Amino acid sequence: MATAARTLGLSTTRRAAIAALVVCALAFTLAVPLRTYLAQRAEIAEHTERAEELREQVAEFERRKAKLSDPAQIEAEARRRLRYVMPGETPYIVQLPGDGEHGTGTGDGQGDGSTSTWYEELWRSVTEPQPDPG
User: Coiled coil: which residue ranges (predicted)?
Assistant: First the structure.
């Protein structure tokens, strides 16, 4: 190797500079593909995690679907969520103190923040004296 350098007329400093230039060129050539590879690996891991979450969600929906295929379960859901009653049954709704604050489906639907129900507002409008317009 030393004979080749002598025949080309390159000194030790020039050889080191050329070697450093070759190493830098190789580093720059490999940097972009390596960065792309690492970014794609991270993206694959993220998509794999999301796919697993979606599989769990689908399994939960399948369990819910199987549960709701039972007519007794549908009836229980209608009674609980929609407060349905069978003909001849007497419905009772027990309101505990503080239930009106959380909005149990009662109220006038205006969303004005008042905690009174529509029939309380009606009774108040009938029983309270109205301001004299004149």
Answer: 37-71
Q: Which three-class secondary structure state does DSSP give residue 61?
A: helix
- The alpha carbon of residue 33 and the mean position of all alpha carbons in its chain are separated, in whole angstroms, by 33
Q: Specify if 133 maps to a domain.
A: no
In a domain, 11, yes or no: yes
User: Domain tally for the chain?
Assistant: 2
Mean pLDDT of the residues in the chain: 81
Residue 85 pLDDT > 80: yes
Instruction: Please tell me the distance from the alpha carbon of residue 107 to that of residue 115, in angstroms, as a whole number.
Output: 7
For tokens 């049954």, what's the residue? Answer: 89
**How distant, in Å, are the alpha carbons of 11, 43, 59, 88, 99 from that of 50?**
58, 11, 14, 50, 38
Q: What is the pLDDT of residue 98?
A: 78
In eight-state DSSP terms, residue 1 is: -
Res 106 pLDDT > 90: no
Same domain assignment for residues 97 and 70? no
Q: Which residue has the tokens 């909005």?
A: 103
pTM of the entire predicted model: 0.42
pLDDT of the residue at 114: 61
What's the token pair of residue 15?
């050889």
